[in-house]
Amino acid sequence: QQQVKQSPQSLIVQKGGISIINCAYENTAFDYFPWYQQFPGKGPALLIAIRPDVSEKKEGRFTISFNKSAKQFSLHIMDSQPGDSATYFCAASGGNNAGNMLTFGGGTRLMVKP
Amino acid sequence: GAGVSQSPRYKVAKRGQDVALRCDPISGHVSLFWYQQALGQGPEFLTYFQNEAQLDKSGLPSDRFFAERPEGSVSTLKIQRTQQEDSAVYLCASSLQTVLYTGELFFGEGSRLTVL
Predict the structure, then answer these.
(1) Which of A32, A44, A107 sits opposite B100 (nearest CB)?
(2) Would the N or C end of chain B have less CB density within 10 A of its end CB?
(3) What are phi and psi of A82, to 5 degrees?
(4) Is B21 on the interface with A (CB under 8 A)?
């Protein structure tokens, strides 16, 4: 059962543009929502994370928007750069039995054109 | 080393062979995770250790998969009688904390297993 759905699967953005990736979850017990960035041949690396007590978190060019009632969260990359070209994964964890298990979305391949 | 180290980086096995994948977490990290990442997919949880204790193995796909962390540091993921569907990248991750949101999870570069 896919508990975290991510869209789009791929995204092409011009340099300087805004990249937006969306995720929706089903399990209302989730209470931690990180985003990971993965380059080819590398492991995922934590980019930014949010907990449900806030609706938005910003770190540099990266912003998470969180909508608890809709069970959705999104990643915005402002002023996208060619170096941002990578695969991005949303994830979620929480709940009595799975507090330390991350459930990942299917990933979004981002290409930023110069 | 400064990061999570995994070996071998690449492994080709014939169907039916046993394989062992090693993970050296960041020194002092209490929590250790194994994930399986199929081509073009997100990582999927396999198992979780807190020190030497395996607290969650709910993601192991079959009894052919076995993981251990006997001294609370290095971990080994063993797959017996490999099948083609086992072909994937196996990612190890570690964290200083025991609760995910209180500490960053650091991933290794993975071991890519190809079963012929």
Answers:
(1) A32
(2) N
(3) -55, -30
(4) no
Are the C-beta atoms of residues A86 and A35 closer than 8 Å to each other? no
Q: Do the Cβ atoms of A100 and B100 come within 8 Å?
A: yes
The tens digit of pLDDT for each residue in B5-33 reads: 999 999 999 999 999 999 999 999 999 99
CB contact under 8 A, A44 and B91: yes
Q: How far apart are CA A110 and CA B50, in angstroms?
A: 34
- DSSP readout, B13-72? E-TT--EEEEEEPPTT--EEEEEEE-TTS--EEEEEEETTEEEE-TT--STTEEEE-TTS
Q: Is the pLDDT of residue B55 over 80?
A: yes
- A and B: number of Cβ contacts within 8 A: 61
